[in-house]
From TrEMBL:
Segments for region (Disordered): 132-189
Biased segments, Basic and acidic residues type: 161-173
Taxonomy, superkingdom: Bacteria
Compositional bias ranges of the Acidic residues kind: 140-155
Protein name as catalogued: Uncharacterized protein
């Protein structure tokens, strides 16, 4: 199976996000605790559905049951605009009972049904370890993602996401910085 470029790129970001949540500075496994904290903040996190789906998708880690793996594999070959919305996946994927209230909050948001499909695909990809036939080794993938991110910045310091139209980016950036500070990260000046 060959992953679409979209899922190939998102896979690395999703795995990195899970890795970041897995252990603290002392190397202790804190994944459950950090995921619980993120799930409790879903009201804030839904603001990032479209521009940082991997940061929100981790709240559904181990939250899906996959009844039709072949259907999920097919979805991993598609670009985001070709993906079906969440309701169309009935019968192929279901939520664990604990994930249903979180999903209801996400589904109430614009773009929520599309995001839920992406989140299910990312978790399926994580759980089953599929990679594209021509995928570079994982370390090379992460280096390429960092280079790609650096290349996205234009001369004015704006990412290509910022160039796609006006958004209330300032308040989202501030909210994101506040959240990261609460998690123990230093603020960027």
């Amino acid at each position: 199976m060959k992953l679409s470029r979209y899922f190939s790129d998102l896979r690395s970001a999703y795995e990195a996000e899970l890795d970041d949540l897995t252990s603290d500075s002392e190397g202790k496994d804190v994944l459950k605790k950090r995921l619980a904290a993120k799930r409790s903040e879903i009201g804030f996190l839904v603001q990032m559905l479209s521009y940082s789906p991997e940061m929100v998708a981790v709240v559904f880690h181990r939250g899906f049951r996959f009844a039709k793996p072949a259907a999920m594999q097919r979805l991993l070959t598609l670009q985001p605009e070709a993906l079906p919305a969440w309701p169309e996946l009935a019968g192929s994927v279901a939520l664990e009972p604990w994930a249903e209230p979180v999903a209801l909050k996400v589904l109430a948001e614009p773009g929520g049904p599309a995001f839920m499909t992406v989140a299910a695909c990312l978790e399926f990809l994580h759980a089953h370890g599929f990679a594209s036939a021509d995928a570079p080794p994982k370390d090379a993938d992460e280096d390429e993602d960092r280079r790609d991110h650096d290349d996205d910045d234009d001369a004015a310091g704006l990412s290509t996401d910022d160039a796609h139209g006006p958004r209330d980016e300032r308040s989202l950036d501030e909210a994101g910085a506040d959240w990261l500070a609460e998690q123990g990260f230093e603020r960027k000046e």
